[in-house]
Fold each of these.
Amino acid sequence: MKMIEVNNLKKSFGKLEVLRDINIDVHEQEVVCVIGPSGSGKSTLLRCMNLLEEPTDGNIYIEGDNLTAPDTNINELRQRLGMVFQQFNLFPHMTVMENVILGPKRLKGKSETEAKELGTQLLEKVGLVDKADVYPDNLSGGQKQRVAMARALAMEPHIMLFDEPTSALDPEMVGEVLQVMKDMAEEGMTMTIVTHEMGFAKEVADRVIFMDEGFIVEQGTPKELFDNPQNERTQAFLSKVL
Amino acid sequence: METINIILEGLPTLLKGMGVTIEVTVISLILAMFIGLVLGIFSITKSKILRTISIVFVDIIRGTPLLVQILFIYFGLPSVIDISLTAFAAGVIAITVNAAAYLVEIFRAGINSIDKGQMEAGRTIGFSYSQTMRLIILPQAVRRMIPAFVNQFIVSIKDTSLLSAIGLAELTLSGQSIYAANFHAFEILFAVGVLYFVIIYSLSLFSRWLERRLDVA
């Protein structure tokens, strides 16, 4: 089943064309990594997938529902799409637990007890149950990002989107965040990940997409793309980052 | 001794006036906060019409003297449209509208000071724009706005003294009516000043306490 279907997507900011005719399908339980140089449009693509950016042209379907159709309830649809940001975007005025359970309580009508049960379970999963009553300012970057993942998972999404989740982290914290993502992938979560972590993409991705200048230049299994890239732009990019 | 007696004699009238001053201020500021919030949000929405409404309101009110606004509402409006306002009602309207214009800017700046990632994070979870505003943006923004709010509240309290011009028996006019009869302007105006100071200083103390209490996160 197609979880995400992107057809002829175009996005411009003023005169600047950031995405030019993008087509992607993401299937159930598939882990897709999007790589490419900065400015290639990969974050914009991801942000179009949950309508944080409005597409200029083209269509995006999430589990068959047209994202930009006027009768689509975007708030309901976004509940099925978890998102993790580069800058974490935790709510600083709430404790870790409050961050995680705000959505389930307010949007899914869970009682405080139910929500806390779920919250504890998710914080255990990301290894931060002892930080439940701490405010985000007192966490390291890696811990913040793990809370952000627990918060996204609390809505029981069908798809997870990651926008360079490790790019703002100190190097020693990257591993703990990637580990949680790996666990998620192993549990069968459908994931689309914009990343600079080539090692992670190689190991965890089912498919790697290389983007440059608003186009998908090349895509394939990690083995195909990393070991035997066909396009010379892919080759040039990989020779710089590997 | 004589001075104290003069003040004590005038005190019941002054306290009554102080009550009116507080009443006008409290009612006006509650209404002004509401209008300020709504127009503040208007000023940051995508809708050009709403933004224009907000900008025009702020520019007109900020661009004209409060005393003129007060006189306009009390004397000007009834001469063209068929309403008659009491001095109290006209005063509340004038102070409300005037304070609201400044509060719009405080709300706008406060909301804009919150990182836009917070709105995105809220929307991504599945909250609507207004839910995200209410649950995530405003609780953070309001904390930062408290000093600016208090500033505006203090200005508005003092502005109510201009309502003496339309005959509202608030604190200043109460003082004037006393020394017009007994000619002890020095003592009475000194007492009036002290009473304003008491109101304003209490508000300052309260806001400092509030800021400390909210400073947990």
Amino acid sequence: MTTQTLDTPVRTDDFPPELAGYLAEFDDVNTVMSAAEVVRDAGYTRWDVHSPFPIHGMDEAMGIRPTILPWLVLAGGLAGLGGALLMEWWMNAYDYGYMVSGKPLFSLPAFIPIMFEATVLIASLTAVFGMLFLNKLPMLYNPLFKSDRFRRVTNDRFFVVIDATDPKFDEVETENLLRSLNPLAIEQVED
Amino acid sequence: MATIRTDTPLPFTLPKLGEEYDNTSDDPRVRQPLVLGGKHFNEVTENVASISERKIHPAWVVCLLLSLGLLTVFGTMLGYLVLTGVGVWGNNNTVNWAFGIVNFVFWVGIGHAGTLISAILFLFRQKWRTGINRFAEAMTIFAVMCAGVFPAVHVGRPWLAYWLFPLPNQMETWPQFRSPLMWDVFAVSTYATVSLLFWYIGMIPDLATLRDRSTSRVRQIAYGLFSLGWTGSSRHWHRFERAYLLLAGLATPLVLSVHSVVSFDFATSQIPGWHTTIFPPYFVAGAIYGGFAMVLCLAIPARQYFGLKEIITRRHIDNMAKVMLGTGLIVAYSYTMEFFIAGYSGNTFEQFHFLHNRPFGPMKICFYLMMFGNVVAPQLLWFKKLRNHLGVVMFCAIAANMGMWFERFVIIVISLHRDFLPSSWAMFYPTPVDIATLCGSFGLFFTMFLLFCRFLPMVAMAEVKTVMPESHAHSPHGEHHRWDYQPDQHSKTGPYKKGERLREVRDWTGI
């Protein structure tokens, strides 16, 4: 065991790369779809299918549960609706009443357009930022980006990636499973 | 660089239209392909991404310099206005809403096509939208930017424009929410925000494509930052698609509300020519008509010069021309109805405005230009032969843009310059500053658009790939077909078997 003093620079090979997982490359939708079903049935939980576009039916093939995003958006929309009503009441009917043509200070019909716009605004912001938050984005570092092969994921290739932190992960068995799926290639992803 | 095959592997041969394939057939038994040239995924990527990767074309530089010149004019005119006062415009009399508001409504209207294509056509499962939605959305954002400038300087003291927003201030006042002008502030700013979000999140996967193809460090970092670390994970796609659907659902009523609210600025007042209940649907239809015209004006040259003819096909042009025809007819109906109601109402002021001042008054030329651009020109689009002629479509699109600008001019200026009291009548003449500002706003629009074409993915690659037959696993007909229904091979003559029809319908609608 060697000890390091503070002024010796940290050398990268003091930290040998760790295995982050396996990736298997496919080039058509049908194969990757059936591969996903096999990996799902083998009981893996920390794994993913990466594709250049959303594949119709992949959610079922992978067993992805529906996201809670719609409920967040509903909450955002209601907050916008209520918030706008509260703002309009407080500003125009309570804090700074200003009589126009003898109309009531609190005139709900005239308040509706802004309530609607605020509903849409807050709900849309929730949809976008909620989606990014649930997806843990932005995440500019990802061990997958070290693989040259993986650069085609945004073009025309499909990848099944099994994470090394998966409780069922085993260097040999997982590789054998992926090999049985008939991929174009298998690669170790290093972190 | 992958070679792009020009032969078509379709089981049926597409007829030719000049040098291009004609996929505009309306025969419901044959699903027309939306991506031509026998492309595979890689070729779509190559086709679109290479636009921002190849060497800069001198023609693009010339266009950009011209646009920047116009943009400089715009900036100078606005600077002159801010330093001098709003009196440099011609509306320094009783016609106090003129070019400023005409240009605002014109640009906001153009913006409507983008969100219509991205949201409403998405909900209606119009798959052809994927070829054009990205740059239609970009167009929306740039049009709304142009629109936003005009009311901001028209307030007279633009440094006080923040008074429009409910911000605490030293006068202890708040905005008047019972005023339609206030609704407009909220509608347009919400619309700008939601359009920007919609455009950006749709672009994340395509920015990742550009990131993964970049060879230079600068491009890697720039696209890497804006693509937020997108990996195409299916778990991410799941939430992404849900967010996209929700945004489409939210943006659909929004797009209809924005121009309705703009029309309330007029309809809730009592000026003859403004005080009409037909305004909200009439304005929305007009906005979609003008917006599609602008999309066509940009799409027809863009597909030509950027080599996108196989992704933005003749069918796309044909469909957009049909939307123009449909909305143009609603506009024509609205004009007729305005005249009828004016005559039928028996109201002297309404009758004077519609039956005398519009068609025979001192600004009648504007009225006839409006009628030509919005009522006469779109009638050409009834005919398939003419819809298939790019020159004719381009002519109708330019006529529509002109007609829609004059429509706003007619509504705003002709109504205002002769209202109830003849003592307050005045003539409106635009000053050179008015005209230079209008032309300059096109400089802002085209500069943004040219930069967008060069540096961002012009076509939604990921979405285009989803409408290609290869993107669907397990074809409902058993083995994998490149195209779903092949009349040559099946040659069905009798009625469909039970259950088969339903499957066919489901396949068609994509549900």
Amino acid sequence: MCGFCAVFSGIPHWTETGTNAGESERVSGGRDWRLTRQERVGLINRILEFYGCKIDDWMAESYVVRSLRGRSEIVPYLPQIWLAVEDIAKKPADPLDPELLNFLRGKMPAVDLAGSS
Amino acid sequence: MVVYSRLIPIFVVTGFLGSGKTTLLNHMLRHPSLKDAAVLINEFGAVGLDHFLVKKMDENTVLLASGCLCCTIRDDLKSAILELNSKRERGEVPRYKRMVVETTGLADPTPILFTLMSDPVLRNHYRLGGVITTVDAVNGLHQLDRHAESVRQATVADRIVITKSDLVETSQLAALKAHLMRINPAADYMIGRFGKIDVRRVLRADVYDPSKKAAEVKHWLDLEAIKTARDHKHIHDVNRHDEHIRSFVVTVERPLDWTAFGIWLTMLLHKHGQNVLRVKGILNVKGIDAPVIVNGVQHIVHPPLHLAAWPDDDRRSRIVFIVDDMDGTLIERSLAAFNRVGAAAA
């Protein structure tokens, strides 16, 4: 728990523990961890354009999911973002949705689209 | 920060009614590696367990608000482990180094895995070592056809032990194994004879044990087994519980963007977690020299970890999926799309 604002801090989600189950990467609380989190927020926001939403990082503890009309929800972990997006956008957050995949394709530079997987 | 290799491994023994779980457990517990294991069972059956530390649970489940059946907390399991843990800390029971949990025959094991992986206190002291599923050679095919729990028990398994093999013809045994491999080609198959198996091989399922993970991951990626499973012909019957279960390998040529992968997998499991029965594989992550292992069951994903070296010359990311009625090509396209967006943003 954060001593200043009493925010509960449980065991981090697997996406926030680094890639080696805590064995070699000192990601918890360090600069790497915050940078990764920033990158994650930026990348999620590129995807959330499709849903008319965006997220902000709140003190590296939670995410705030916002609609363009000002509605917002605070969620602790990455998986809950998708629940909040569905709630706000009234659209399924489905990575297999062909429309979403087309949208992501449209965000790619032409040189990348010519490449393989 | 929790270091998973130092946590106490829990091995879950599951299997349908009468499939020989307790007989197998009795044999396993005589092995020196499990002499210092604590054992949790749901019921004292006809076959008694001869072991120093056996505790019974009273089944009590709590369904979470999401309504997903796999995301169910087994309160009984949580309480039983925490109670044992307290006694261990106070010196009231021996300092066991492993734990074995035997499920009831009618249990879908995923809530047990969810409980072990989601409770903050448990996750600080224990990790899932592996799932061992017993399948009865005599009745296994019928049970897989007619009971969804039996199919779930097979799909989540790291080790499948076919029991009572001495009671059937070789052809029936081969048919059962082929059927099981179609459901779960990434498991290691063992034939139990009179309740006896190679216990060391069972314990190798624990990928967080540094001495065992390389061999285990190599087994996951036995692509020939997966191809054989895919090509296995079976009679279509919509009433069968495993009719739509299939397995495939998603490969990604480019190094994976770890941030994009995490976003993609959480989104996939959010929407399709009930149909993604297993996901496990080896990833070539951009900026990381070591191969990264991922391993999940439905909505539950274990913390990723590194292998010391690649198991073969193939440097592509390869992920084995076992799914219920999902399109592998679409999953591959989707991952590639997210990965490209991640690479472009980096």
Amino acid sequence: MNHGSTWSDEKTERLIGNLLRAGVLASALIVLAGGVLYLVHEGRIHPDYGTFQGESAYLTSVNGVVSAALKLDSRGLMQLGLMLLVLTPIARVILAAYAFFREGDKTYVVVSLIVLAVLIYSLVGSG
Amino acid sequence: MNTLEFTLLVGLGSFLAGLLGALTGLGGGAVLVPLLALGFGVNIRYAMGASLVSVIATSSGAAAAYVREGYSNIRIGMFLEIATTIGALVGAYLATRISTPAIGTVFGLMLLYSAFVSGRNQPEHPVVRRPDPMAARLRMPGTYPTDEGPRSYNVASLASGFSLMFGAGTLSGLLGIGSGAVKVLALDQAMKLPFKVSTTTSNFMIGVTAAASAGIYLHRGFIAPGLAMPVMLGVLAGSLLGAKILLRARTQWLRRIFALVIIALGIQMIYKAFTGRL
């Protein structure tokens, strides 16, 4: 948007906008589906979030969450939706890197890739 | 209270937080953690996990609209995200180490600061006396739409903006919030961006910053899906509705009331932290 003359700026804006909206919508629907299952199964139990024990191990890794969600485990599904939400801004950074590449703006391709590296480290490398 | 009742109440509270956050422009994230910790007796780390994912939802939801309108500056946002994401990693690691009362105290101070900032009057279009040559080399100056057509703006002190952004990222990771108040400080006080450009660019950056802490929060078990579910859905619905009615509402008095609520929550957080009841 700084340089309105280049073709890809407007297109990038539209793409980024749509991507963000679709990501949030999809994740909200998955969280909602998992939430309904969760309340049907566990709605009558008393919740306890008073002391911090850390979430069950299977819900703290990408692999664990995906395999639990595939078995239609309600917590796994909700966590999958939340993970998808976390991936939305990451996809946005990838898209921005691509757009800067198309514009031939090497500096900002590097900038975007640095940000991307930090995000990927957090998601897969920090465990 | 069983899980069904708990979920509905937390969902309703989060909805109101999201609605007020969007209407006042102060963000709902800051009040979520105190709401859960003080109101529902949720451990602060679970509260931070639920708050952080909700922050991503509202940022992405709102950014989708702002990006299209051409207010946010993607170059400035992306460049400063280097600082905020690295800061967020540092903050999230700190959050796994330092004590609950310490987190509570920092949180309370942050709330008081946000309320203080919300009372200031910002100029629509600040004057940049000395444009930063580094920012110009990085092609940061841009234009934004106004009633009289596109208006161009310059960028001051990139270095101080960058350092403030590192601090904003650290606070975001440490407290599970978007820390929009500090981001806006960096953009409009240090870098002298026009008000609309700084608020929308800040919002645009919040999601990416929060995503950088989210991985660590996930691995360390801060994100409890049963709790995060009503919080995220409630905040998202509330903030979307808030953004819709924002155009028609007069929000000045609402801002004042919400700022008072934030001050009260801040004082209570600090008090509970010091008396060991957090």
